[in-house]
Amino acid sequence: MTAELSVDGLDAAYGASQVLFGVKFEVEPGETLALMGRNGAGKSTTFKAIAGLLPPRAGRVALRGQDLAGAKPYRIARAGIGFVPEDRQVFPEHTVEENLEIAQKPGPGGGNWNVERAFEVFPLLVPLRKRMAGRLSGGEQQMLTIARSLMGNPAVLLLDEPSEGLAPLIVAQIGELIRKLREMGTTIVLAEQNSRFCLGVATQVAVIDKGTIVWRGSVEQFRADPSIQARYLQV
Ligand SMILES: Nc1ncnc2c1ncn2[C@@H]1O[C@H](COP(=O)(O)OP(=O)(O)O)[C@@H](O)[C@H]1O
Ligand SMILES: [Mg+2]
Question: Are the CB atoms for 53 and 92 separated by under 8 Å?
Fold first, then answer.
């Protein structure tokens, strides 16, 4: 089986400071991979390198076998990689509905996403439909940015720390939503420091430390070996 997303030998740097060293992982269709690591381990940089915002110095980023490493961000997005960065940017002076409409376009994913479908799958956004996005709470903005990225019908969705800074009840709602997307067949990579949250939603785990993948396995294998958490994740 061809992996939906395959990253291999990925190096990335900010100026003279190299941050990623041969990052390698694969995600099979329909899986949710948790990319776990401490603050500063290289999770966001991995996503920026995949999405083309920080062009990699070396390596391969293949979507369904097509190498996209070093392509412009708009080309990578159009090829089917949806990216929700950690800062949850919305168009604040536009309504929730407009934020979704702006992003609606065909893509390679099988979800047939459009604005109406987004409101079906994200019922918490329905009463907010006409509200200015700048007036949403953090959790509501997170849901909106996830919904908006789905409007481009991506093959793979990269979610950078979707639970960060949100109250426990909202984190649980975001978790429900990610599980629902997985059940619909969406392929997801989730960057997280919060291992409790991602073990509840992911199927696969990759642990990153100092810019290198140091462990890879299923959620069951991860749970069975507490030494991995002790070594790479606890602060
Ligand atoms: N814009 C930047 N310029 C220089 N260094 C950066 C920049 N962004 C991140 N870094 C550094 O790269 C390393 C990895 O950061 P990052 O990918 O944001 O980690 P994570 O998302 O896992 O917390 C850290 O040492 C961080 O300080
Ligand atoms: Mg980060």
Answer: no
40 lines ligand 1 (CB under 6 A): yes
Q: Mind listing the pLDDT tens digit for each residue in 5-17?
A: 999 999 999 999 9
Distance 79 CA to ligand 2 centre (A): 24
Name the residue with the closest Cα to ligand 1, atom 24: 40
- The reply to whether ligand 1 has any atom less than 6 angstroms from the CB of 44 is yes
What b/e string do you get for 6-32 counting C-beta neighbours within 10 Å, with b at 16 or more? bbbebbbbeeeeebbbebebbbebebb
Domains detected in the chain? 5-232 (3.40.50.300)
pLDDT digit string (tens) for 47-92?
A: 999 999 999 999 999 999 999 999 999 999 999 999 999 988 899 9
Any atom of ligand 1 within 6 Å of the Cβ of 48: no
SS3 22: strand
Helices (H) and strands (E) in the chain, counts: 9, 10
Q: Tell whether ligand 1 has an atom less than 6 A from the beta carbon of residue 39.
A: yes
Kindly state the percentage of the chain with pLDDT values over 70: 99
Yes or no: say if 111 and 80 are a contact pair by the CB < 8 Å rule: no
